[in-house]
């Protein structure tokens, strides 16, 4: 019934604007059952909005239920999976969080920057700095993003691994030059001028390029 489709979409838009996510979910559910093209996306996002609200209220059990529903509709929903990792971490379910994180990294590596925060929780805060650094090195080799490089550099700096930091910074400046990396390099050199000779040539060469 075209009129029903139109009415439900308008209801969804209205409830979304009002952030009435339970009512928006109901309208999205009807659109999903009617086979509307984008209904899977909007329904999973409604579940995620509801789950986020429940997490803020401290109700992780119900949040988990809605996130599982979202993943059942779309098992590639990055937002739902990240929120589910957060639920597992809040409940100290490290193995489950780690399994989901590995799934995301394997299936959707293009969003690696979104995985750095939960990875820090899984591998560093709940594990060890060495595990976190190994994860970052592996991911940087596959996806040389400056955000991964900065995370690894920060970890080296926190642990006073200055030789490893210098070596990786030289590599990162050549492999994935970005303003953020140059800012880090200048700030680091300012605090440790004795390292100037190691980095200055690499930095000036990249600026010339």
Helix content: over 70%
**Radius of gyration, CA atoms, in whole angstroms:** 22 Å
The count of helical stretches stands at 12
C-alpha end-to-end distance = 61 Å
Shape type: elongated
Low-confidence stretches: none
Number of strands: 0
Class derived from helix and strand content = mainly alpha
Give the mean pLDDT: 88
- Approximate strand percentage: under 5%
- Quaternary structure of the protein: single chain
H/E series: HHHHHHHHHHHH
The largest sheet, given as strand count, sense and whether it forms a barrel, is:
none
Q: What is the gist of this entry?
A:
With 209 residues, this protein is mainly alpha-helical. 79% of the residues lie in helices and 0% in strands. It contains twelve helices and no strands.
Secondary structure topology:
Elements: H1 2-17, H2 21-33, H3 39-56, H4 60-73, H5 78-90, H6 94-107, H7 116-125, H8 129-142, H9 146-158, H10 162-175, H11 179-191, H12 196-208
Helix pairs in contact: 1-2, 2-3, 3-4, 3-5, 4-5, 5-6, 6-7, 7-8, 8-9, 9-10, 10-12
């Amino acid at each position: 019934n075209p009129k029903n489709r139109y009415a439900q979409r308008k209801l969804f838009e209205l409830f979304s604007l009002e952030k009435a996510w339970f009512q928006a979910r109901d309208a999205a559910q009807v659109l999903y059952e009617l086979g509307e093209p984008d209904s899977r996306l909007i329904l999973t996002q409604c579940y995620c909005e509801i789950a986020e609200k429940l997490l803020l209220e401290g109700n992780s059990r119900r949040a988990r239920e809605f996130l599982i529903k979202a993943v059942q509709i779309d098992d590639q929903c990055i937002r739902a999976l990240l929120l589910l990792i957060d639920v597992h971490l809040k409940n100290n379910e490290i193995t489950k969080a780690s399994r989901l994180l590995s799934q995301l990294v394997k299936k959707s590596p293009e969003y690696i920057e979104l995985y750095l925060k939960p990875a820090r929780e899984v591998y560093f805060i709940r594990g060890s700095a060495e595990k976190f650094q190994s994860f970052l090195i592996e991911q940087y080799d596959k996806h040389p993003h400056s955000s991964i490089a900065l995370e690894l550099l920060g970890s080296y700096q926190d642990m006073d691994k200055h030789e490893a930091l210098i070596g990786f910074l030289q590599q990162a400046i050549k492999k994935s030059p970005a303003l953020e990396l140059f800012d880090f390099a200048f700030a680091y050199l300012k605090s440790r001028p004795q390292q100037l000779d190691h980095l200055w040539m690499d930095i000036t060469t990249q600026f010339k390029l």
